[in-house]
Specification:
single chain; 4-stranded parallel sheet; two-stranded antiparallel ribbon; globular
């Protein structure tokens, strides 16, 4: 099968391999140290691998999970010392968490695990006033549609402004006109 995988996260102006725990931790600490505080961490990497579940190797699945899920934990752990009450963690989820795509099986596994991890992070951080949320994009991302990247970005920004008492760890994004 074909493979397309993005393994980089941009931290400040530096591209970092999100699966490299030490490099990502160092980059986030450098960014946090420069500004003194981090108010919003947004997580969006995922691996898109065109392989069905039966054709996917265990190593490929674990590699994809390392990028699309585990690197969030690295980023949060590195960001946490720079966050205080009112800080937000958001992640871009996807409908494949609920409806797997036959030809890209690992994507659904990543998005389901990501939602679960975000919920667990929200439970762990809420007592400190830090909230985490996954925005489940329930459609195909495409410019000029209700699922245009700028519409999704606006939704993530708006949700990040939500007061703690109205917080939900998962929001379904069904598009904006």
């Amino acid at each position: 099968g074909q493979e397309l995988q993005s393994e980089g996260i941009t931290v400040g102006w530096t591209a970092v391999d999100a699966t490299d725990v030490d490099a990502l931790t160092t980059a986030v600490a450098r960014l946090g140290g420069h500004g003194g505080a981090i108010h919003h961490l947004h997580f969006n990497p995922s691996a898109f691998r065109l392989k069905s579940a039966i054709d996917l190797s265990v190593d490929e699945l674990l590699s994809d999970i390392a990028l699309g899920v585990a690197s969030l934990l690295t980023a949060v752990r590195a960001t946490r010392p720079f966050m205080s009450a009112g800080a937000r963690i958001t992640a871009t989820g996807g409908a494949t968490a609920d409806r797997p795509w036959r030809d890209a099986a690992s994507l659904g596994v990543q998005k389901a695990a990501l939602r679960n991890l975000v919920t667990a992070l929200d439970l762990a951080l809420a007592p400190d006033g830090i909230r985490a949320m996954s925005l489940t994009v329930a459609g195909t991302v495409m410019s000029g549609t209700a699922f245009a990247p700028e519409q999704i970005a606006d939704a993530i920004y708006d949700i990040g402004q939500t007061e703690a008492e109205f917080w939900a760890s998962e929001i379904r994004f069904t598009g904006r006109e």
